[in-house]
Amino acid sequence: MTTGPDTGSASGGRGSISIGVMTGGAVAAGQGARAVDISARTAVGQPSDTLDAPPELLATVRTLREHLRVLTPTDETAAVDEALATLEDDLESTGKAGRGHLELLAARLNVGATALAGLASAAAVAQTVNGLLG
């Protein structure tokens, strides 16, 4: 979070707040401001919870991993590739995927303002994962 300078008087100045990404919570700024968090919370599955994955998920994961290689490496792409590699291993060995792992991967893929947003293969993985999670 960043805040901008107060450009007005002490009683009614105008400042700014910029929040890059926020999940839940509330923000307030200025004298007498009050923030109320009314965001809905959903239960996150335990990492030990597993789901049977459809066969096409493995193929879409492999395609996305190939497409990631053409992007300029960033912390974001590295984290997604690591998550995809773990998922690929799980799918190859058991045909199942951990709910908690899928939820974290879905959260990364569902953020629209990322380098991944331009990849159709990311949308395919996100759609399949979101379908599994319900």
Could you characterize the architecture of this molecule?
- This protein is mainly alpha-helical and 134 residues long.
- The chain is 44% helix and 7% strand.
- It contains 4 helices and 4 strands, in the order E-E-E-H-H-E-H-H.
- The chain has helices at residues 55-68, 75-94, 99-109, 120-133; strands at 2-3, 17-18, 50-52, 96-98.
- It has a two-stranded antiparallel sheet.
- The longest helix is centred in the middle third of the chain and has 20 residues, at 75-94.
- The two termini are 32 Å apart.
H/E series, N to C?
Answer: EEEHHEHH
Summarize the biggest pleated sheet: 2 strands, antiparallel
| Physical arrangement of strands within the biggest beta sheet | 1-2
Q: Span between N and C termini?
A: 32 Å
Number of strands: 4
Overall pLDDT confidence: 76
Q: Count of DSSP helices?
A: 4
Helix content: 40-55%
The low-confidence parts are 6-10
**Overall outline:** elongated
- Name the structural class: mainly alpha
Strand % is 5-15%
* Rg, Cα atoms, Å: 20 Å
Summarize, please:
This protein is mainly α. The protein has helices spanning 55-68, 75-94, 99-109, 120-133; strands at residues 2-3, 17-18, 50-52, 96-98.
Write the topology of this structure.
Blueprint lengths: L1 E2 L13 E2 L31 E3 L2 H14 L6 H20 L1 E3 H11 L10 H14 L1
Helix pairs in contact: 1-2, 1-4, 2-3, 3-4
